[in-house]
Amino acid sequence: MLINDLIEKEDIKIENMIYEVRGKQVMLDSDLAELYKCKNGTKTINLAVKRHINRFPERFMFQLTDEEVSKLSRFQIETLKGRGHNVKYLPYAFTEQGVAMLATILRTPCC
C-alpha cells in the first residue's frame, strides 16, 4: 500500500506532518511510523534504517538536536506527546528523498 492510498483512506493531512528544519522540508520518524502503521512505532523505522544505513546519507535523513526539537512550536511537541510519543529520544527527520528511500526498504505497509 502506498502512502497516497493511506492518506486518502484515512483523510490524513500530510501538510501537518511536514516541518522545516535546517532549511529543508522534512517529516519526523514518528509521523512516518504512524503513516505506515508500524506496529512498534519509530523502533521499526529506526531498525529498518540501521539495516540499510548506507542508503541514508545526511541529505536523506538526520537526527534532530535538542535545540531543533525545542524550536519546534509548542503545538507540534504537544502533538507528539499527545500521540503517545515521548521526546525521550531525539527524533529523526527524513527529507523527501529519505521518505522515498524509507518506503523502498519497508517490506509491508504494517512494517
Amount of beta strand: 5-15%
Distance between the termini: 11 Å
Please state the second-level CATH architecture.
Roll
Helix-strand pattern: HEEHHEHHEH
Number of domains: 1
Gyration radius (Cα, Å) is 13 Å
Write down the CATH topology: Mlu1-box Binding Protein, DNA-binding Domain
CATH class: Alpha Beta
Strand neighbour order, sheet with most strands: 1-2-4-3
How confident overall, as mean pLDDT? Answer: 80
Low-confidence stretches: none
The biggest sheet, with number of strands, parallel, antiparallel or mixed sense and barrel status, is: 4 strands, antiparallel
The number of helical elements comes to 6
What does the model show?
The protein has 111 residues and is α+β, with helices and mostly antiparallel strands. The protein has a single domain (3-105), classed as Mlu1-box Binding Protein, DNA-binding Domain, CATH 3.10.260. The protein is built from 6 helices and 4 strands. It has helices spanning 3-10, 29-35, 42-51, 66-71, 74-82, 96-105, and strands at residues 18-21, 24-28, 61-63, 92-94. 21% of the residues are buried. The model has no long low-confidence stretch (mean pLDDT 80).
